[in-house]
Amino acid sequence: MFPGKAHKVGAHIDTDAIIPAKFLVTTDPVELGANCMSGLEPGWVERVKKGDILVAGENFGCGSSREHAPVAILGAGIPVVAAHSFARIFYRNGFNMGLTLLELGDGVDKIRDGDELRVDVNAGVIENVTTGEMIPCAPVPTFMREILDRGGLAGYVRDKLEAGA
Fold first, then answer.
1. Percent of the chain's residues with pLDDT above 90
2. 3-state secondary structure the chain
3. 22-42: pLDDT as tens digits
4. Whole-structure pTM value
5. Which residues contact 107 (CB under 8 A, 6 or more apart)?
């Protein structure tokens, strides 16, 4: 369960808006997180508290394949992104880096900037605490939750190798 405040952005937010190229000189999550969404709005991340939830329109994460983008979101303290839809490569990179992603389709329209949310990835539901609305989404499949639980694909593979699987 992920409780947090919604920080809503629009549609077609590309990876350069999430983390501009000039910040790609590091892989440090804290440094990347300090500049998260600065290509969209300088200082955007200053409104975010650890555990808050990013809510986006269609095609979130479009643009270049940039693993830094999900790392920046995680580094900003955001554990979950709920969007109408995701660019496919960002979707895969997000899970690989340990970022939980949920596609809501038109359900995203039931969330406003600043709403308090509770996200249940196992049940596939987002409760908008502010409005009382329950927003269904596809639950994260078990094998993907295993990847997320290990902090991403690298942690998952490491754990499997150490277990001799």
1. 88
2. CEEEEEEECCCCCEHHHHCCHHHCCCCCHHHHHHCCCCCCCCCHHHHCCCCCEEEECCCECECCCCCHHHHHHHHCCCCEEEECCECHHHHHHHHHHCCEEEECHHHHHHCCCCCEEEEECCCCEEEECCCCEEEECCCCCHHHHHHHHCCCHHHHHHHHHHHCC
3. 999 999 999 999 999 999 999
4. 0.94
5. 126, 135, 136, 137
